Amino acid sequence: MSTLIQQNKINDLINHPGIGFESARNSAKEIFNKQGMPALKAEEYKFTSITKKLDSFLTNSLQAKAFEVSVDRVKSSVFEGFEGDVLVFSNGVYQPSVSDKIKELSISSISAAADCPIGSIAKPEKDIFCALNQASFQDGVFISIPDKVKLERPVLFLFLNEVSDAQVIQPRIWIESGDFSEVTFIEQTVQLNDSPTFVNKVIEIKGGINTHLHHYRLQNEGKNYIEVSNIETDLLKDSTFNSVVISLSGDMLRNNLTINILGSNSEGNMYGLYLLNGKSHVDNHTNVDHTVPHSESNELYKGIMADYSRGVFNGKIFVRQDAQKTNAFQQNNNILLSENAVVNTKPQLEIWADDVKCSHGCTTGQLDEEALFYLQARGIGKLQAKGLLLYAFAGEVLEHIGDDPFKKYCTQLVENRLGSKF
């Protein structure tokens, strides 16, 4: 499809947006029309040719409509062992009628929330898919966490998708956290059919003072599933934000994750595991922006790639001139199990302060043959030994999941994959 046809098709989408936010939508539309879809050699999408992947979706330029969801469907979709509250999304649209009522939180549609500042954190000029979402999403969910609220039970975002004719799904979530609060959010997506699906998700998180937020994600979709997600959080004084993303399957997944550290004595943590086979493609782009003194960030992403799969990691840490006494760690480690598997990794540090402790690095290699021989010499079969070594490599990321039922569920999925496929 030519660039001009692509642009015209997307114009059809952004000219028929959802409700409200005329000013925010118009500004995003202007940005999109000016920048357009990522070109083949665009630096930020250098190893992820997503524009070509989206040809069929641009041909239709149709946004998927919400479908009716039953309570039984919700119960059967939630992962085994979950103990918490569920917020349900049907093709990206929040469904309050089948969602749990969480008395400690204020939850509404974005259109019903007064003065919801969408695009003030995940700015549309930062990523073209932010602009596309802001220009054309139907409606979203607004979550306000009052001061001093500490939820003992996690909140599950359950995304149920069922589309036809290569339709687009665009969830939008705004989370606003009060001071001295703590909440755990978990994301789970369930594909109800095998139709080609493109999800363009934006989540903005506005932290308070001394807030502690945890965000865990599982990506385990079918071979026709494409997703771009932009998740960005503002972190204020004495706060923490923990993110863990487990990517197991899908066609092409692009995860943009940004932490803006705006208050001292704060800590941002990012952990990721991508375990790929077939022709799956996962691209993790992370940003940590240290703007004030006395803050810390930790980042560890690990990948295991087999068959013709491809992993991409691009991590950026910015330490601004005023951000003295910053501690920042970044590491990306990869194992290739096939001569045809590919990884592209680019850890980056940009430091303008002089009193900091920062490190970054990456490794790419194959399974340790000496360790494999050692296990086999002690009576462990080759496949089992291989699985044990790979799980030992992957398990370091899983340990950072703070919700036990979700950790158990993800661990079982990883163990099954390592034991059966590899």
Question: How would you sum up this structure, described in words?
Answer:
The protein has 422 residues and is an alpha/beta fold. It contains 9 helices and 20 strands. It has helices spanning 3-14, 22-35, 50-53, 55-60, 71-77, 128-136, 369-377, 382-398, 404-420, and strands spanning 85-90, 93-94, 106-109, 141-145, 155-161, 167-169, 172-177, 182-191, 197-206, 212-220, 225-235, 240-249, 252-261, 266-276, 281-290, 295-305, 310-319, 327-336, 342-351, 357-365. Helix 2 runs antiparallel to helix 6 and helix 8 packs antiparallel against helix 9. It starts with a helix and ends with a helix. The model has no long low-confidence stretch (mean pLDDT 92).
Computed structural class: alpha/beta
Provide the β-strand percentage band: 35-45%
**Largest sheet: spatial strand order:** 2-1-5-8-10-12-14-16-18-20
Ends distance: 38 Å
Order of helices and strands: HHHHHEEEHEEEEEEEEEEEEEEEEEHHH
Q: What is the overall silhouette? A: globular
Helix content: 10-25%
Largest sheet: 10 strands, mixed
